[in-house]
Design goal:
heterodimer, A: 251 residues, alpha/beta, Rossmann fold, 11 helices, 7 strands, 40% helix, B: 356 residues, 2 domains, 12 helices, binds thiamine diphosphate, binds iron/sulfur cluster, binds magnesium ion
Chain lengths: 251, 356
Amino acid sequence: MVVFEKPHALADVPLHYCPGCTHGIIHRLVAEVIDELGIEGRTIGIAPVGCSVFAYNYFNCDMIEAAHGRAPAVATGVKRSDPENNIVFTYQGDGDLAAIGTAETVHAAARGENITVIFVNNAIYGMTGGQMAPTTLPGQVTQTSPYGRDTSKVGFPVKVCEMLSNVDGATYLERVAVNNVKNVKNAKKAIKKAFQNQLDGKGFSLIEVVSTCPTNWGLTPEKALEWLEENMLPYYPLGVYKDKFAEKEDK
Amino acid sequence: MAEKVLMKGNEALAEAAIMAGCRHYFGYPITPQTEIAAYMAKRMPLIGGTFLQAESEIAAINMVYGAAAAGKRAMTSSSSPGIALKSEGISYLAGSDLPALIINVQRGGPGLGGIQPSQSDYFQATKSAGHGDFRLIVLAPASVQEMVDLTFKGFDLADKYRMPTMLLSDGTMGQMMEPVSLDMGEVKEYDKSSWAACGTKCEREHNVVNSLFIQPDELEKYNFERYERYAQIEANEVMYDEYRMDDAEICIVAYGVAARVSQNAIDKARENGIKVGMIRPITLWPFPKAVLNAAADKVKSFVCVELSMGQMIEDIELAIRCKKPVLLCNRTGGMIPTTADVLSKIEEANNIGGDK
Ligand SMILES: Cc1ncc(C[n+]2csc(CCOP(=O)(O)OP(=O)(O)O)c2C)c(N)n1
Ligand code: SF4
Ligand SMILES: [Mg+2]
């Protein structure tokens, strides 16, 4: 009996991520969902600029590499090219989605663009070597906040799910984590729902995955998970921030 | 002969794009190109196409990038400051070998500049439309009919060579009304299945649309390949028009609205006995170097007429290897040279050498 297999949607190539990085787990969850929904042949993924830039090599569906922050706009073009058939997702980091690409993110949500956004929040610019991100926590030390993020000078982190929950066009917003088995299972459920929403034509879904960057946090993989639990989760509480259709179904 | 209809340049261009099979238009409002977007907003929903007003020019060009990556004919239009914002996306289109049509209805600059006609984005269009090693095919219409024909041709060239094409127009061309024929013949279909990201249907390996190559030798290889394609374009796709050049001793070089003014000036100068003609580049890249260089062996001087501080003039001097003097007749900031301006520059050119 086979108990553990690579999802078909995940390419059979070694991933380049650092040991203990949660990008790999999140890739796997997305690929499992694509398999389970049977949509690989009609899915087009948009890779960001960030550590997950090579995502275009890791998924077996058609892939497009976008400029830094522009993935939601690229996804819009792809989705509109064949809205009946195409299933389109973006996979973006916090610098990509919540700094340089904020306008593209907010407006894709505002348009109710029928796409799925996987947002990996690791509170840092991983790829460029650990600079302060829009999501870097108050006091957090990074290469460009060497004395800790000073909110009196550089302001506060952007809470993406909270912010987008005020955008009427957004359909489904949930913040998840992949730091333990229970959370991984829940993350997968949320990602699946975000894709199912698109299949059902329900509009813009975004899943924020609170993640680790052991390398640039300067922590071992285990310590990084502890740091995430002690610092990230209190600032970025997990949960559903918006579920337009659930609200309707409840009424 | 196909029947002609009276149309405004910008609207004729938009209709030509639709007739060329473009069903995906993304843009952001800016004067003086708004008629294109307005026309698309009206027409696209009626024919199952997409008109989308983006949140910025950056988003618009990236939507074009997405639709083009999915294998569709896609376009955007803007004017100078907006094209500056699109330059990131234009570079990505070029780097990912994606076809698309970009319209620049130029206005005066730099900065916010003005809203009157200009040709001061010549450098931007032909030399530095974005970062990195790449070229754009740049087409310069000088009539409403050419707005139509070059839009049609622009899509075809973009698909044929898998690269972005720019139509470099200006406010005059956009606003002008002239009778046009919209009979452009068959739309040639190109097979995009080997590269377009439109779903594998689980029947093939995945397609990846990408411009990232971490290994420098690999990136170099792609750049070399792309420039081989550019060399073919330079060999095969140069377009220009000649006007009264047969016995010309002075050669005007002008494109777009400047060429129209120049044509009137040439007729006047000829009445005064000055042998002057014009070579009008229709492709600004590839630039009609060979014909200009050949002309340099016959004429005694050139006059470059342009609505800028002198941009195309550098390409003329390069093309003729500075064999003959090139005078500049220019207005800028949204001003257009008059026939009299051009005429007096022709007379100045005629006096060069003094032996006439
Ligand atoms: C226009 C542009 N600006 C800057 C960069 C450099 N850059 C590459 S990745 C990156 C940050 C990525 O951080 P994030 O989105 O958080 O992803 P992570 O690496 O943390 O997964 C930056 C600034 C770029 N490639 N393009
Ligand atoms: S730098 Fe950080 S985010 Fe990037 S792969 Fe390494 S651990 Fe992951
Ligand atoms: Mg990050």
